[in-house]
Amino acid sequence: MRHVVSLGSCSLALALAGAVAVACGDANTTSFASSGGTSSGSIFLDDGGTIAQNIDGGAGTGTTTGLPCDVQKVLEDGCIGCHGGSTSPRLLTYADLTAPSTQYAGQTVAQRSLARMQAGTMPPKPAVPPNPAEVTTFSNWVQAGAPKGGTCTSQPDGGGGGNTNTPPVCTSGKNGSTSSDVGVLMDPGRACLVCHQQRGGPRFSMAGTVYPTAHEPDMCIGIAGLQVVATDTAGATLTMTVNSAGNFCADPGDPKKCQTTGTLNLVPPFSVKVVNPTTGATRPMGGTITSGDCNVCHSQNGANGAPGRIFQP
User: Fold this and answer.
1) What angle do CA 101, 72, 217 make, to 5 degrees?
2) What Rg value do the Cα atoms of the chain yield, rounded?
3) Which of 32, 130, 254, 264 is the most exposed place for a label (fewest CB within 10 A)?
4) Measured between alpha carbons, how far is residue 106 from residues 18, 100, 101, 122, 308 in Å?
5) What is the pLDDT of residues 113-161, one digit of tens each?
6) Which of 237, 246, 154 shows the shortest CA–CA distance to 207?
7) Cβ atoms of 52 and 60 closer than 8 Å
8) 3-state SS string over the chain?
9) Using CA atoms, how far apart are residues 83 and 73, in angstroms rounded to an integer?
10) Residue 287 region, left (φ>0) first, then alpha (ψ -120 to 50), else beta?
11) How far apart, in Å, do the first and last CA atoms of the chain sit?
């Protein structure tokens, strides 16, 4: 999904339906071989979202994919980190999924993807497999003949304004921890859902970091006390409280862990905004999205249309 000034979420990284699994690294890891990085055996090392940030067209970029929104979300939440480049079959658009399989005559890429999901062969452990609801969503679509969908995500429209022409600086002057011992306070600024899926969970439905300014570096502690509110097309809302590291998250398995209220599994597409509960100030994201790994696009310099970090109203 392409996003603008304030808030968004983008593509995640995990193979559900093909070649390899991925494993997310810490601060000094390499990138996927598809972008000139290195690999070790069948495990590709990622830096927390770089490959997903550089996908050219299709799911994860805000362009129209031709896929139904729920199917697009399954792919964005679990496939395109590997299947968005040249080394693995692309799983980004309706054309990609309905193309003939190069290995199984008479079957499409979508049919083979479903077979591997159902067999549990992709992704390999420790990566988190698609949950039963996701497999059902994908299966229902394939069994119905893979009908084409409509428009799920919106192009940037200016968002909630704000100054993005700011210098790169860590406003807090403090770095967060890479240790899992600190739980939801770890790795501010980095792509949360990517690593949690690749390393075996817990699996979040949405996560990111809020900063005072637009170009703060990875691992810099953000700003606390704000709220991130997501609303789907049916009007259901999910409110996430920003913690002391600047992180917010939604964990369907443990709502209290992430300080959330409302609907943990929104129906895509949905819109998002940052709210200051004290002043009432808000910063809405421009457009709609279908997935929840906000820091993939909202990195220090921004990717896929985002000009930089999610920052305070």
Assistant:
1) 115
2) 18
3) 254
4) 17, 7, 8, 21, 44
5) 999 999 998 877 787 888 899 999 999 999 999 999 988 887 554 455 6
6) 246
7) yes
8) CCCCCCCCCECCCCCCCCCCEEEECCCCCCCCHHHCCCEECCEEEECCCHHHHCCCCCCCCCCCCCCCHHHHHHHHHHCCCCCCCCCCCCCCCHHHHHCECCCCCCCEHHHHHHHHHHHCCCCCCCCCCCCHHHHHHHHHHHHCCCCCCCCCCCCCCCCCCCCCCCCCCCCCCCECCCCHHHHHHCCCCCCHHHHHHHCCCCCCCEEEEEECCCCCCCCECCCCCCEEEEEECCCCEEEEECCCCCEEEECCCCCCCCCEEECCCCCCCEEEEEECCCCCCEEECCCCECCCEHHHHCCCCCCCCCCCCEECC
9) 14
10) left
11) 22
The residue type found at 165 is N
CB count, 10 Å around CB of 172? 18
pTM here is 0.81
Q: How many CA atoms lie within 13 A of 168 on its CB side?
A: 8
Q: What is d(CA 286, CA 160) in angstroms, rounded to the nearest whole number?
A: 7
Give CA separation, 43 vs 144, 191, 201, 248, in Å: 34, 18, 17, 29
CB 9 within 8 A of CB 25: no
Residue that the structure tokens 């939801």 belong to:
184
Model pLDDT for residues 158-178, shown as the tens digit of each residue: 455 688 999 999 999 999 999
Q: How far is CA 11 from CA 8, 80, 81, in A?
A: 10, 7, 7
Residue with tokens 């210098």: 167
| Token output for 219 | 């691992």
